[in-house]
Amino acid sequence: MKIRILSPAERDLEEGYRFYESQSPGLGSYFLDSLYSDIDSLAYFGGIHQIFFGYHRQLSKRFPFAIYYRIIDDVVVVFAVLDCRRNPSWIRERLIKG
Fold first, then answer.
1. In the chain, what are the domains?
2. pLDDT tens digits, residue range 1-23?
3. What is the dihedral of CA 44, 47, 52, 54, to 10 degrees?
4. CA-to-CA distance for 65 and 59, rounded, in angstroms?
């Protein structure tokens, strides 16, 4: 399957990068490498994850982040990459707004 990352999800990744890079130089790059690796795995495993708030949710292997996606016409469309430490009601509202 092909993968498409929407602009809001790219902004989520940039925000996560800035946060982790401010914690320790180089950690932001490691964060991006890890999350993009998780997203790349969706080409093979897209659709097997449990559904939350109307989206499939894949948990990152290294960081407390979740990748929210849908499969549309054999394309994995990533809508959001969100920090799991956020309030669940904030996550739900963020996903409803798109």
1. 2-97 (3.30.2310.20)
2. 999 999 999 999 999 999 999 99
3. 130
4. 6
